[in-house]
Amino acid sequence: MAKKQFKAESKRLLDMMINSIYTHKEIFLREIISNASDASDKLYYKALSEKITGIKRNDFTINITADPAARTLTVSDRGIGMTRDQLYDDLGVIARSGSFDFKDGLGGDDDKNKENASRNIDIIGQFGVGFYSAFMVAKHVEVISRAYGEEQAYAWESDGADGYTVRECERDDNGTDVILTLKDDTDDEKYGQYLSEWTLKDLVTKYSDYIRYPITMMCSRTVPKEGTDGETETVMELETLNSMVPLWKRQKSKIKEEDYNNFYKEKYYDGADPLKVIHTNVDGVLSYSALLFIPGRAPYNYYSKDYEKGLQLYSSGVKIMDKCADLLPDYFSFVKGLVDSQDLSLNISREMLQHDRQLKAIEKRLEKKIRSELLDMQEKDRDKYEEFWKNFGLQIKFGMYENFGMNKETLQDLLMFYSSSEKGLTTLKEYVERMAPDQKEIYYASGENVDKIDKLPQTEVIRDKGLEILYLTDSIDEFALKATGVYEEKTFKSVSDEDIDLGETDEEKSAVQQKEESSKEMLDFMKNALGDKVTEVKLSQRLKSHPVCLTTKGGISLEMEKVIKAMPEGSNPEIKAQRVLEINSDHAVMKTLEDAFASDRDSLNDYADILYNEALLIEGMPIEDPVAFSNEICRLMTK
Ligand code: ADP
User: Fold this and answer.
1) Which residue has the higher pLDDT, 454 or 206?
2) Among 3, 5, 4, 8, which residue's Cα sits nearest to residue 95?
3) Measured from the CA of 175, which atom of ligand 1 is nearest?
4) Degrees to nearest 5, angle at CA 460 with 455 and 466
5) Among residues 370, 364, 375, which one has the least CA distance to residue 337?
6) Is the CB of 163 inside a 6 Å radius of any atom of ligand 1?
7) Residue 143 Cβ < 6 Å to ligand 1
8) Inter-residue contact 199 to 35 (CB < 8 Å)
9) Which of 129, 149, 513, 624 is deepest in the core (most CB within 10 A)?
10) In angstroms, what CA-CA distances link 539 with 517, 566, 581?
11) Is the distance from CB of 551 to CB of 534 less than 8 angstroms?
C-alpha cells in the first residue's frame, strides 16, 4: 500500500519534535489521554443533546495497557472514534486551524524570519501539539479507531516523518486504541520506563488526575497468600489511577499554587505560570464555579484578529463549549479559564446561548470579580499589576475608548499612565489625590515616548510650576482619556491646548495681551504667510526657553490627527487639528521677527515658515516641503 505523505507543515513539525525541542517527553501520555477524554466528552455530549439512549456516563473509561514483551503502550477509549476521512484529516495534518504559521520558514537570513522561527518553536514547546508528541517516544504508532455509528474500523499507522497508511481493520465497538511501539533505549533516554507501572501511575497523577473519566490500568498488588501464615503473593487488579475530581471542584484550601499553575499551563498552552488565579464558587439562585487565570504574558497573537476570547463552559462537569465568548467582555478578553454551572441547560445551542439570561448574569458577575481582583492587585502588589498593565493595558484602554466610554465606570480605575512627577506609572485616583485644591484640571501631554514628551516645549512651564502631567505614549491613550471625559469632577486638559489655563494672575494676563496687541500686525502677517496651515499665530504664555510650539484649538489634537491619518480605513482627510503657532515673546527670535517686519518682509515670510516647520519637527510631525525648508535655511546661512 502506498504511503500517504504528511502535509508539509506536519512534516516540519514532526522533524522538530522528533529531534526533541521538547524537553519533557513524558507529556506525550497526557496528550493522548486528553484526546481520549475529549473523544469521550464528544460522544457523551452527543448522546445527551440528541437524546440517544443506551449511553451512560459510566460507560466511558480510558484504559492503559503496557506490554513489555512487545514494547508497546496502548491507550484505549470508548469515545466517538474517527471515520476513515477523519483519520486522514485529523491525524494527517496538524495545525489545520492555521494557528502555526510556518510560511516564514524556520531559518532564513533576515531577522524577522529568525524571530518568527524562534517564536514558532516556542509555541510548539508549549503546546506539545497533541497527538504528534507520541513520536517523541515511539518509533511506530498505530491508531485503531471505529467511529460511533459505523460498522467498519480503520487502522492508521506511521513510523514518523515519512508518512502514514490507513487500512480497514476490526474493532468490536466504537472508540480508539492508540498503540505506541516505544523507541529503543539510548544512553540518554530510557524509553522503556514508559512501560513501568510505577512511572505510568506517576504520570497519570501528575498530569491527568482531573480527567473526569476513570483512567484504568492492571496494577500489581501484594496481598496475603491464602492458606499460608504470613506469606504474600502479587496479584494483578484493575485500578483507577486518577481522582477524577476536577480541580475547580476541589476544596480551595487543599489546592496548592502549583496545582493551579500546572493546570493552567497544560490546559491553556502557556509555558509560563499565570500572573493571577481567580477561583470562585458561587451558590444561590444561580450557582457556578469559575476558575480564571490572568496570563503572565500576552499570547503571541493577542493583539491580532486571530485571537479568540472565551472561557470553557461546563454544565455539571460536562464540557459543552470550548470557547464561550459570551462569558467575557472584550476588555477582559485576555482572561483564560472555565465556568461550570449545574443551572445551565445541557442541550443548549450556540444561538440560544447568546441570549441566555443565566449566561449573561454569570458574565456580569465574572466581570465584577475580575475587576475587583485587578484593583486589589493594583493596591497590594503594584509590581505585579504593572506587569499586568504592560501586557494587557492596551486592551483595557481600547475598552475605555469603545462605545464612547460606556465602560467608564468599570475601567477608569484600572487605567495607568506615566506621571511626570512620580517618574513611573500612576492611576487617575492617585493623581487626583495629589492635586492642589485649586487645580481644576488633570494635565496630559502626548508623544512617542517619555523622553520626547519631556522635551516638548509645552511641558516645561507646567512642570516648573510643580504641576503633574500624565504622559500619553500609546496612540490610543488620548482617545481613551477623551472617552473618560470627567474623572471625579476633574476634566482632562492637554498641555498643547491653546486655551490652557495655568493659573496666571490678571496682571500677567494683561501684560501678554498688551504685547500681543502691539505685535498684532506682525502676527497677522505671519498668519497670512502660512495660509491655511495654521488657524492663528499668537504670542505664548507657556513657553520658557523654547522659541516656538504648536498647540491646537478644538477637540482634535495633533496626536489624534496622527493616529487617524495612520488608520488604513476610514482615514478622513477632513479630520485635521486646528493648529496654532505660538511664539515666545521673551525669546531672542522675537526681536529678529520684529526687525524683519519693520524692514524686510520677504525674510519674515521665510521665518514664519521656518518656525512653523521647527514646531512641526518638535511635535514629531513630518514637514510638508523639506526641500523648500532646506532652501530657506541655506538662504539664512548665506545672508
Ligand atoms: P488537538 O487534540 O489539539 O485537536 P491532536 O493532534 O491531539 O490535536 O489531535 C488531532 C485530532 O485527532 C483531534 O482533534 C481529534 O479530532 C482526533 N483525535 C485524536 N485522538 C483521538 C481519539 N482518541 N479519539 C477520537 N479522535 C481523536
Assistant:
1) 454
2) 8
3) 24
4) 130
5) 370
6) no
7) no
8) no
9) 129
10) 10, 31, 8
11) no
Q: Which of 131, 173, 319 to mutate to test the pocket of ligand 1 (most atoms within 8 A of CB)?
A: 131
Name residue 178's beta-bridge partners. 75, 143
pTM recorded for the entire structure: 0.69
**Other CB atoms closer than 10 Å to residue 41's CB: what's the count?**
20
Query: How far is ligand 1, taken at its centre, from the CA of residue 437, in Å?
Result: 64
Which residue is listed with cell 486522514? 88
C-alpha 389 to ligand 1 mean position (Å)? 36
Distance 75 CA to ligand 1 centre (A): 13
Residues 6+ apart with CB under 8 A from 474: 394, 397
Q: What is the pLDDT of residues 44-102, one digit of tens each?
A: 988 988 888 889 988 999 999 999 999 999 999 999 999 999 998 888 654 333 333 33
Q: How far apart are CA 197 and CA 66, in angstroms?
A: 8
Residue nearest to atom 21 of ligand 1 (CA): 35
- Secondary structure string (H, E, C) spanning 267-293: HCCCCCCCCEEEEEEECCCCCEEEEEE
Ligand 1: residue of 34, 38, 93 to mutate (most ligand atoms within 8 A of CB) is: 38
Q: Which helix (H) or strand (E) holds 627?
A: helix 626-637
Å from CA of 141 to ligand 1 middle: 14
Is residue 77 within 6 Å of ligand 1 at its C-beta?
yes
3-state SS, 464-520, equals HCCCCEEEECCCCHHHHHHHHCEECCEEEEECCECCCCCCCCHHHHHHHHHHHHHHH
Q: Which residues contact 452 (CB under 8 A, 6 or more apart)?
A: 620
608 three-class SS: helix
Strands 578-583 vs 276-282: parallel, antiparallel or unpaired: unpaired
For ligand 1, atom 11, the nearest C-alpha belongs to 90
Question: Residue 128: its pLDDT value, please?
Answer: 39
Length of the chain: 639
79 lines ligand 1 (CB under 6 A): yes
pLDDT digits 0-9 by tens, 12-52: 666 665 555 455 788 789 889 988 998 998 899 889 888 88
Distance of CA 464 from the midpoint of ligand 1 (Å): 65
d(CA 497, CA 479): 15
Q: Please give the distance, rounded to the nearest whole angstrom, from the Cα atom of residue 45 to the centre of ligand 1.
A: 16
Q: Decide if pLDDT at 126 tops 70.
A: no
CB 39 less than 6 A from any atom of ligand 1: yes
Half-sphere exposure of 318 (CA within 13 A, CB side): 24
Residue pair 276/377 in contact by the 8 Å Cβ criterion: yes
Q: List the grid coordinates of 66.
A: 503496557
Instruction: Quote the radius of gyration of the chain (alpha carbons, Å).
Output: 34
Whether residue 35 has its Cβ less than 6 Å from ligand 1: yes
Cα distances (Å, whole numbers) of residue 525 to 57, 426, 456, 584, 614: 87, 44, 26, 17, 18
Cβ proximity of 538 and 523 under 8 Å: yes
Helix axes 589-599, 601-618, angle to 10 degrees: 150
